[in-house]
Specification:
Layout: H1 20-30, E1 36-37, H2 52-60, H3 75-86, E2 97-100, H4 102-114, E3 120-125, H5 130-137, E4 141-148, E5 154-155, H6 157-162, E6 168-174, H7 186-199, E7 202-206, H8 221-225, E8 231-236, E9 249-254, H9 261-273, H10 279-282, H11 285-290, H12 295-299, H13 304-317, E10 322-323, E11 332-333, E12 336-337, H14 347-358, E13 360-361, E14 363-364, E15 376-379, H15 384-399
Parallel strand pairs: 1-13, 3-4, 3-6, 6-7, 7-8
Antiparallel strand pairs: 2-9, 4-5, 8-9, 10-12, 11-15, 14-15
């Protein structure tokens, strides 16, 4: 009998954040089991809500949001994004802003617009795995440069330089970083920019967690890159504004635009083909960027996000055989499992065993393209009591493996 197989271009494409272990968790829930999910940075299920001012902007504009918008997004929202980056010292015009159905869609559009088969994209290890998956789906080759855990998970510049070849087209920077919570110092960013300038590479700067900072300061890559390094800056409403489901993101293109006319034509073509971004959610962008920044209350000492990330790191470091670099930003921790204590050869299988025995779902480290089965990602979004319970279950499971 004939079979209907998936397209060959999907070979090697993985997105384990929502992979087989999550499918198993859903099957367990269908049987009536209750799963504590610490695998996805979805804020709403943990009680984080979008600001009411954004909700009002969305609701009040619903009657005028029934039709398509400009394929790049509504003018007022793109202007708000432009103004935001101008206030941070970046020379940008409204025509350099594209809105999308979240950063995820824009990553796909940008890579499809630029990448030819066999082109190489430098992506951090560990990474947000959508970058690797979309690079592969676009016909490119994801080449992972290492991040240095001993230095707070900043990119290993020597390793990055060693991975550059004649096929390299771009460098992906995820700052603040998912899954490690690292914030890259300005000097480190400048070294990467200089590398890109030397080799005529494009910079893709994923800055979706730019406002969720606990320690240090975030620097927009584009503000350091100048006018001669093509830089694409990605951000949106999902995380800092607790609106994951609204799917409202943007990309800002800066640098030598006169050299990127063909690429921008391709990006515009893809924007036209998807008709437009989610129109109702676009109306919340101006309100979000121009209004009171309620995220500031959550990320300072005493704020829920700050306190939970610190608590989770402390509790994890108390477990024998676990070491965890405290997060400086974002919503996650990326702890290390000491191989001398836990002989784990397959971390996906380990995470599945944890799910089945303790009803706790976390992300295994190789799912974030870390090369060794000795890390996992934990989402620190539940309130303290539930967070303590999750880490207690983890400790109980690990105790059986020591």
């Amino acid at each position: 009998m004939a079979t209907y197989d998936q397209a060959e271009r999907l070979r090697g494409v993985r997105y384990d954040v929502r992979g087989p272990n999550m499918v198993e968790a859903q099957a367990m829930e269908a049987r009536g089991e209750r799963i504590l999910k610490l695998n996805i940075g979805n804020l709403a299920p943990f009680g984080f809500q979008a600001p009411e001012s954004m909700l009002r902007s969305l609701v009040e504009n619903l009657v005028t949001a029934e039709g398509y918008s400009d394929s790049r997004g509504i003018f007022s929202a793109r202007t708000a994004v432009m103004n935001y980056y101008q206030s941070h010292g970046l020379a940008v015009d409204v025509d350099q802003v594209w809105l999308g159905n979240g950063v995820s869609e824009l990553i796909s559009m940008v890579l499809q617009s630029m990448i030819n088969p066999g082109d190489e994209i430098l992506i951090p290890a560990p990474d947000y795995p959508l970058w690797t998956a979309q690079t592969t789906l676009s016909g490119g080759v994801a080449v992972h440069y290492l991040s240095d855990e001993t230095a707070g998970w900043v990119p290993d510049l020597a390793d990055m330089r060693s991975k550059i070849t004649e096929r390299t087209r771009a460098i992906v920077i995820i700052n603040p970083n998912n899954p490690t919570g690292a914030v890259y110092p300005a000097g480190h960013l400048q070294a990467i920019i200089d590398m890109a300038r030397e080799h005529n590479l494009v910079l893709f700067s994923d800055e979706i967690y730019e406002k969720i900072i606990y320690h240090g300061a975030h620097t927009h890559t584009a503000t350091l890159a100048g006018t001669d390094v093509l830089t694409l800056t990605f951000s949106g409403l999902s995380k800092a504004y607790r609106a994951c489901g609204w799917r409202a993101g943007w990309v800002v293109v800066t640098g030598p635009l006169h050299k990127a006319e063909s690429f921008l034509e391709g990006l515009t073509l893809l924007a036209n083909m998807r008709m437009c971004p989610n129109v109702p959610a676009q109306h919340a962008i101006q309100t979000a960027l121009g209004g009171y920044q309620s995220i500031d209350d959550l990320v300072k000492p005493g704020g829920r996000l700050y306190d939970q990330l610190q608590l989770a790191a402390e509790l994890l470091n108390e477990i024998p055989g676990i070491s965890c670099v405290p997060a400086k930003a974002a919503l996650y921790l990326f702890p290390r499992l000491d191989h001398a204590v836990y002989e784990i050869a397959d971390d996906e299988a380990w995470a599945l065993d944890l799910l089945r025995k303790q009803k706790l779902l976390v992300g295994h480290g190789t799912g974030f393209n870390w090369p060794h089965p000795d890390h996992f990602r934990l989402v620190a979004l539940p309130e303290e009591e539930l967070l303590r319970e999750g880490i207690r279950r983890l400790a109980a499971h690990l105790e059986t493996l020591r």
